[in-house]
Design brief:
The complex is a heterodimer.
Chain A (H helix, E strand, L loop, with lengths): L1 H49 L4 H16 L2 H11 L3 E3 L6 E3 L2 H30 L2 H5 L1 H15 L11 H12 L5 H34 L5
Antiparallel strand pairs in A: 1-2
Helix pairs in contact in A: 1-2, 1-4, 1-6, 1-7, 1-8, 2-4, 3-4, 4-6, 6-8, 7-8
Chain B lengths: L6 H23 L16 H9 L1 E6 L2 E2 L3 E3 L5 E2 L1 H13 L2 E6 L5 H7 L4 E2 L7 H4 L2 E3 L5 E8 L16 E5 L4 H9 L2 E5 L2 H9 L6 E4 H8 L14 E6 L2 E3 L6 H16 L1 H8 L6 H11 L34 H13 L4 H4 L1 H37 L5 H13 L3 H16 L5 H31 L14 H18 L11 H12 L2 H33 L18
Parallel strand pairs in B: 1-5, 1-6, 9-10, 9-11
Antiparallel strand pairs in B: 2-3, 3-4, 7-13, 8-11, 8-12
Helix pairs in contact in B: 1-20, 9-11, 14-15, 14-17, 14-18, 14-19, 15-17, 16-17, 17-18, 18-20, 19-20
The chains are: A mainly alpha, B alpha/beta.
């Protein structure tokens, strides 16, 4: 009986804080979307350079790709948090340029996306040129799967003080002041990630299986 | 597809890197305090103009330090310092916006410009004055003591010698206490984490401000806990603004406000309102500031250099460090260029950094080996065909892949620790969680490779002895996963593991040399990752060469570069 009252107490707390935590998870998704957008566009440019006939461009693109693959995201997050000003007053215009912490986190994650896009899109473009359009389309499910990895990686933004899901969990625990609630709240947060990523992963697996099966007859 | 870089392009890359980093180090070096010539006038502050422009004063406050700064039952921030912040905003006739800061990030946030002022229990020390501008007069004072569980029996600071003591990253007293009493400090990110560590017996006590500890001791949660050691290093607290605001009208306005607080008794009134035990500091300071000279004018007045007269200032601050040899050279460089290479000339910093590097390398090696073993073990279980075991292994693999490692570290370290009633070592938890996450990635790669292999050999089942057969098919994805885990090791910094990132932030809070330290950190990490990548690719090559390459049209699993 004691157990049940305790459980309802925990569920009540979780329910009360759900909107607050959901808003935090929204920030995780926003960070990931921004990172994917910036990373994909820059990676695209690198991929175009990599399939170009000029050896010079190819080499530079390879160097930049290698660089973006090797930067650890968490260190780069810290780097941007420390080195990029939070806001700049553009002289004589009165416009304030703002770099909030979440944007810095997104920029850091975008670095990893650049490397990924450059590598995978190059393969896709080469397949496309050969006429294997279906093989080129494999880029889409692998891109989405990568986006989910970025969603999970966005939880590290809490280390530089972004108010995303994980740091909101800490805020909630501090506000309630009951350390017994820690485990349920952190597990609840993990559930958010799992609930979002798992169905999408299954979907992407299915899509790539469909594309691959269409691909099969083309193989010798 | 595999990319090989020539030595020439690598050299070009590193040169490019250096150029970028050094151009950026100028940004970081800008915080070196300018020594303005003494003058009668305060210059107009750009920051103050910015505040008026946006109509909001952004103040860094604490939310984990009751009753000075905390969250109330409805999640709203409040406290002694929050009232002071509101008073300042009111006097500047702008709105107040509060940003929650911690001991380790408050001065960085100020330097970054995220916040306009810091009002967050900041001790006014000579070292910090090199990084930021401290507003005089001081508004409060506190010392440092040890928050201890009932069973500990240290009675004097001497009894703590060589013992494990928990501390918060970025507190000014950490280094002095560590050197003076040879404490083995365990750095935590927040006060809450450090106190939980005390509860779990990870250390004999928590080194913290006596004001905050006294408040904690009144809570039922910490019944029986105590703080028997006499407060050491009593230090006044100051409002801090950016270093370049030194000598500005912004500094003057804030100084005048604090002076007024002392004269009118506003601080003592607020102290009572928040049920803080009366502080000797406030009583004495008020006495000085209310004093009038023979003509009835206030005794404390600004002199021709803009400073208050010496009797009204903080006397603790006139300390200087004895320097010679390499240190002198380093300080000279700092004076002329603003580049502060404490990392090279300061033995303490250098040792810390090298220890951090060793910890990071150790973490990397353990994580790589651990992930590989977890992955192989899991894959063999999943392929074993044993009724309960195989589906269980597959399900846990999916679960582990879809749970980010950082939250799972919180779950295991704090959640499981609080339920079982014993403490797990932080480093082991970090390694475990990273290995589980990456191991799941390795396992998926092996299972996919096994499925591909079955296209040719339908009766194939993965066992420990035939893992090698999959090496060629899975090595690309496996290598990518292992490279990623070596990049992720610095998550450990959030849990008091003294690796590179944690050490670097400690040095930055102490020295304020953000530019130099961040560049050193990034370069060191790039070097580590480059070495790890080289090594892993080399091993991958060896594995591939051992096996006869299958015919060229064999199916290749897509390269899954999970760079995070």
């Amino acid at each position: 009986m004691m157990y049940i009252t305790e459980l309802t107490e925990i569920i009540k707390h979780l329910y009360a804080w759900t909107p607050f935590l959901l808003a935090g998870f929204g920030l995780n998704i926003l960070i990931s979307l921004v990172a994917m957008t910036i990373g994909t566009s820059l990676g695209w440019v690198l991929a175009i350079l990599r399939v170009s006939p000029h050896p010079h461009r190819v080499r530079w693109s390879l160097v930049v790709t290698e660089f973006s693959r090797n930067i650890p995201t968490i260190v780069f997050q810290f780097y941007l948090a420390f080195m990029l000003p939070a806001e700049m007053l553009i002289p004589s215009t009165g416009i304030i340029l703002v770099f909030p912490a979440w944007l810095k986190a997104a920029l850091a994650l975008a670095i990893a996306v650049i490397g990924f896009t450059s590598d995978n899109l190059t393969i896709a473009m080469e397949e496309w040129k050969k006429g294997n359009h279906n093989a080129a389309f494999l880029f889409i499910p692998s891109w989405t799967s990568y986006a989910l990895i970025i969603v999970m990686a966005s939880s590290t933004a809490s280390i530089i003080g972004v108010g995303e899901l994980l740091s909101r969990c800490n805020t909630v625990i501090n506000a309630i002041g009951n350390t017994q609630l820690m485990l349920p709240i952190y597990l609840y947060a993990c559930l958010f990630f799992f609930g979002f990523c798992y169905p999408l992963t299954l979907l992407m697996k299915k899509i790539s299986r469909i594309i691959s099966s269409r691909l099969a007859p083309q193989l010798p | 597809m595999r990319i090989r870089l020539s030595t020439a392009s690598l050299t070009a890359l590193s040169l490019l890197l250096c150029a970028i980093l050094f151009s950026m180090s100028g940004v970081g070096g800008a915080q070196a305090a300018e020594n303005l010539p003494p003058g009668y006038k305060f210059f107009a502050s750009e920051r103050l103009a910015l505040i008026k422009q946006r109509g909001t004063l952004i103040v860094g406050v604490k939310t984990d330090y009751p009753p000075f700064g905390m969250l109330n039952s409805s999640g709203e921030p409040e406290g002694f310092e929050h009232d002071l912040a509101a008073d300042i905003a009111g006097r500047l006739e702008v709105k107040l916006s509060k940003v929650s800061v911690t001991g380790s990030n408050r001065l960085q946030k100020l330097q970054e410009g995220v916040i306009d002022i810091v009002l967050a229990t900041t001790g006014d020390t000579a070292e910090r004055r090199q990084i930021v501008t401290m507003i005089e007069p001081n508004y409060y004072a506190s010392g440092v003591t040890l928050f201890m569980p009932p069973q500990e029996n240290a009675k004097d600071w001497a009894d703590t010698r060589g013992k494990k003591v928990c501390a918060s990253q970025g507190s000014y007293y950490n280094r002095i206490m560590q050197q003076r009493y040879l404490l083995d400090l365990q750095m935590y990110n927040s006060a809450r984490d450090a106190k939980l560590a005390v509860r779990d017996g990870r250390c004999i006590g928590y080194l913290f401000d006596n004001t905050a500890i006294m408040n904690d001791l009144t809570k039922p949660e910490w019944k029986g806990y105590k703080a028997p050691l006499p407060p050491a290093l009593v230090t006044p607290w100051a409002i801090a603004i950016a270093a370049k605001e030194h000598g500005s009208d912004f500094e003057k306005i804030l100084g005048d406000i604090v002076a007024d607080w002392h004269r009118t008794g506003f601080l003592i009134e607020k102290e009572k309102a928040w049920n803080i035990p009366p502080s000797k500091f406030l009583v004495e300071t008020q006495e000085i500031w209310q004093k009038k000279d023979a003509e009835g004018k206030p005794f404390c007045e600004r002199g021709i250099d803009g400073n208050w007269n010496a009797e009204c200032r903080n006397k603790v601050l006139l300390t200087s460090t004895d320097v010679s040899g390499l240190a002198k050279l380093g300080l000279k460089l700092n004076e002329y260029t603003g580049i502060n290479l404490t990392l090279i000339y300061d033995q303490f910093d250098r040792t810390q950094f090298l220890l951090g590097l060793a910890a990071t390398l150790l973490l990397t090696v353990i994580c790589i080996l651990g992930s590989l073993s977890f992955g192989v073990f899991g894959a063999v279980c999943a392929e074993s065909g044993i009724p309960l075991l195989a589906p269980l292994a597959k399900a846990s693999c999916e679960l582990a892949r879809m749970t980010p490692p950082l939250p799972s570290m919180y779950v295991v370290l704090f959640g499981v620790g609080s339920i079982c009633g014993f403490s797990l070592p932080a480093m082991a938890v970090v390694v475990w969680c990273l290995c589980v996450y990456t191991g799941a990635g390795v396992m998926t790669a092996l299972l996919e490779a096994a499925a591909t292999y079955r296209i040719r050999q339908p009766e194939f089942h993965l066992r420990f002895f035939n893992v090698r057969k999959l090496a060629w098919l899975s090595s690309g994805s496996v290598t990518a996963a292992l490279i990623n885990v070596s990049k992720a090791t610095m998550m450990a910094s959030a849990f008091a593991v003294p690796e590179l990132l944690s050490v670097t932030t400690s040095i930055i809070t102490e020295r304020g040399n953000v530019g130099v330290m961040m560049n050193a950190l990034l370069l060191t990490y790039l070097l580590i990752i480059f070495c790890v990548v080289r090594l892993l690719r080399h091993l991958e090559q060896l594995v591939r060469e051992r096996r006869q390459r299958p015919r060229s049209d064999s199916p290749v699993s897509p390269v899954e570069e999970e760079n995070t």
